[in-house]
Amino acid sequence: MDPERCSALSSHLPRRYAPAFRNDADYWAVATVRELIRRNANEAWEILSKLVDRGEDDSTLALIAAGPLEDLIVRHGPEMIDRIEGEVTCKPKLRQALSAV
User: Fold this and answer.
1) What's the pLDDT score for residue 63?
2) CA 54 – CA 82 distance, rounded (Å)
3) What is the pLDDT of the chain when averaged over all its residues?
4) pLDDT digits (tens, 9 = 90+) for 71-91
5) Is the Cα dihedral 10, 37, 43, 63 positive or negative?
6) Are 91 and 52 in contact (CB under 8 A)?
7) What is the pLDDT of residue 5?
8) Which of 97, 87, 19 is nearest to 58 (CA)?
């Protein structure tokens, strides 16, 4: 993903992802994450990692875990497992989110 696009998505998606479940105006964030997961595992991981890092509470991390994080693992698990395992050791929020998958 080009760094400018990643930066733009990373700054907007975390603020809009959880509210999208309560506000149809923000549903684009959910649709964007789903499309990234379907299209490109590495781009999706970049965004999901930022979503988890910026997760403000347990319910937000649970939304990410039970939705896009689980979808990424189901769809691209063998391709992504080394990357996920490499990051989980130093990211407590990621460990918490993975425990809810």
Assistant:
1) 85
2) 22
3) 84
4) 999 999 999 999 999 999 999
5) positive
6) yes
7) 62
8) 97
First to last CA, the chain: 26
Residue 11's CB is within 10 A of a number of other CB atoms, namely 11
Residue with the two structure tokens 């990424």: 72
Residue 32: CB atoms within 10 Å: 18
Nearest one of 43, 67, 59, 54 to 93, comparing CA atoms: 54
Read off the tokens for 65. Answer: 């875990």
Residues across the chain: 101
Note the pLDDT tens digit of each residue in 26-70.
677 788 889 999 999 998 998 899 889 888 889 888 988 999 999
Q: Locate 42 and state its tokens.
A: 């590495």
Residues 6+ apart with CB under 8 A from 60: 17, 18
